[in-house]
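Hi X.,

You mentioned you wanted examples for the new student's onboarding notes, showing what a folding record looks like when two proteins sit in one file. Here is a clean example. The first protein comes first, with its sequence line followed by its structure tokens.
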Amino acid sequence: MLEPALSRIISFEPLAGAAGDMILAALFDLGADPAAIEKTLHQAGLTSVNLHFSRRQCQHGIVCGYLDVIDTADTHVDHDHGHDHDHGHDHGHDHGHSHSHDHDHDHGHAHAIAGEAGTLPPAPHQHRGLGDILTLIRDSDAPARAKKRAEKIFRRLGEAEASVHGIDVEQVHFHEVGALDSIADIFGICLALEQLGIDRIYCSGHKIGYGTVRCAHGLMPVPAPATARLLEGFPVTRLPIASELTTPTGAAVLTALAEGPLPPRPFRLLATGSGHGRKNFPELPNLIRALLFEDQTAGDTEAKPEAEAWAEVETLSVITFETDDQTAESLGYLSERLLAAGALDVCATAAQMKKNRPGVRLQILSRPADEARLAKLILTESSTLGVRIQAARRLYLPRSIAKVDTPWGEAAAKIVRRPDGHVETIPEYEDARRIAQEHQLPVRLVLDTIKAWKA
């Protein structure tokens, strides 16, 4: 009888926040090879990037990993940002290498700039489009899973910046996050995860400070607008430290890759690693810890490798309750309230209740961070006295939104790639309904026209 496969998982624990260089330093401290990752980065076109990793004792007496990402093409030595969490603009702190940059001074630095598609030039602090960065990743010889993870992070970061600035994600051109050292942070993290054979990623929560931070657009509140947008819906703790603790890059990495907190079941702890930021805080060590576990769970691990090729994976909460003394109108109203409050899906099915009463079972799908708020709404708006909440893994197909050309104008649709490689166009019903009403057409004709659209 074959033994079940052993899954390697990692849990990130931000003690005082997270930044790109800190996360990568923690992975190097766990045993990932900086030289091998640097070689892949060079092959991808980041030939001027050097990774300088070291271990030393922080002021609180803990030996941690420290990382300097050096862009040797940068001749602007007055840009010594010193890897501070707050994007290196506080020049009164310890500065390591005169050519080094804080990889995470990326909040508020997205701009809408036209006509910059193409390859990435080597010049530092260049405005780079999201498409440019994704092309660099896709054309590299990195493992497929590392490419997929890196693309997911950059897309999430791009969507956050686009939302903050009120522009389309394709118009986002990153300033400092597009600098070579910052791309090296994100891509390097994904390569290190692959080196360590990490199948699943968790995060215990996120830390933020308070105050303001100076960036290219002037003073910004802490957390920075992009960081705040990325952390929406996730558990956050505000520490009494007047500094930026979680940067947009750190938030993008952890919220894009982590499935939630580590599940409460037995694991075998293999190793620990710590990544320290450049800034020192008297209150506590400025580090993020990475715990490497081995998980022997039959079933989960068997399905995972195949699913990695075609699906995204996340952990969601399933909230369930039954009621037998509410009207259809009140339950319809509750469903509307739940969806407006952040529920991902609400489903009602018939249920046989006690004393032979016909009833209704409602099942609500939500993100873990939203479950308590949605449960409170249910217990306020319904007659039930309790709800059941379970964690569930979801495999879902990646999708993108496109504008489809129809004979009656543009319509929104989802573009989905099925596991067999088939690309499907799924109409957004509200747009199809609008067109049908405006042009006095059968809605089925509009839906069929959108479905037949090819890019």
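Then the second protein repeats the pattern, sequence line and then tokens:
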Amino acid sequence: MKESLIQKYNVPGPRYTSYPTVPYWENEAFNYDSWIESFKKSFRESNSSEGISIYIHLPFCESLCTFCGCSKRITKNHSVEQPYLQAVLKEWKLYCDEMEERPIIKEIHLGGGTPTFFSIKNLEDLINGILKTGKKAKDFEFSFEGHPNNTTKEHLQKLYDLGFRRVSFGVQDYSETVQKAIHRIQSFQNVAKVTFWAKEIGYTSVGHDLVFGLPFQRIEDIVDTIEKTKSLKPDRLAFYSYAHTPWIKGNGQRGYKDEDIPKDDEKRKLYEVGKALLNSNGYHEIGMDHFAIATDSLYKASREGKLHRNFMGYSHSKTQMMIGLGVSSISDTWYGFAQNVKDLDDYYQLLEWEKIPVFKGHILSKEDLIIRKHILNLMCNFETSWENEVAFLPQIPEILEQLKEMETDGLIKIEENKLKVTKSGKPFLRNICMAFDLRLKRKAPKTQLFSMTV
């Protein structure tokens, strides 16, 4: 890849897990009643046809990983488990009270934090509590994130018995130097153990999360990590760019100096070397930052044009409605977003008052809905079109004019009523999406809100 392109396009930009992105939500216009109205509308439209997805945020971790950008609470006190899960089930009940029929549950994803911080019994009570008032869709998919150091075989077996078939393990990097810097010490042996347990039990999709651009990370570290990963044969991989945002996350991302972090061309080389190794070992690029083998459902969905993306990441199945439960979780009705309060005490207090604990959000305008569709198309299929009235924006000519330089650089191909991302353009997907982001254009941030795109 031309180094000049990396320098040229390496600017702060959103990751587009939503549109509008969170900093551009119109929180002043958002209120509880408008959120409930959006929720009811979406539920009526989509429950019987495709079901709903549920993301449950389990925020507790026993130690702080300094690379992490998630909302978490560090504690070794496991007495926090039951009160928290009782609160989550109460939040679920409040949503169920607003439903006109029994919810059909297509997806459940346990994220964190560290979901396997919780005991087997408590996780079982949580899932049974959710399913007590809902019914599983025929093609349901339950998944969770596991920490290789504290995921037991009993965790894997019990969650499998409850219907979970997909698990992802946070690996990041196997270099001891990198692990010490990010305060995430875990051996290859631990990762191998939980991976083989999951396969032995019968999980149909075992994933590993890898990160490039971490402090002190070198090309030889990436090569070693991927060679070790290859030997375990996970079904899918996330190969994320480390998002260095200490101005947002505070001291958690200040366990090392800025100069310790690979930047620009150096960082991009880490990705290019890693990607080439993954491709040569049978992993196909899916959307942004994701890879899967040909037998995995994510690859099949990509080939069939059925890939979907939301706050949970990429999925092989789409639901219009995603309910986020737990502190800091984000819900999505397609017509609106809402985020729960981030403080645990506030979360408990609002539930005591019989209130769904949202504190900010955004109801999408007609323009937002069209742009959201274009960005989702690009993120999932590497192309978008404006052939029909629904997908047309008056600003399309202006957007295409701004994209001309990217076309000249070989990153995209503009056809009649259609735009396609080229192979060379895939690493710059965020930059291409930014051309459609009218809110970002109309109000450029005065301070850095986003991580670098490269």
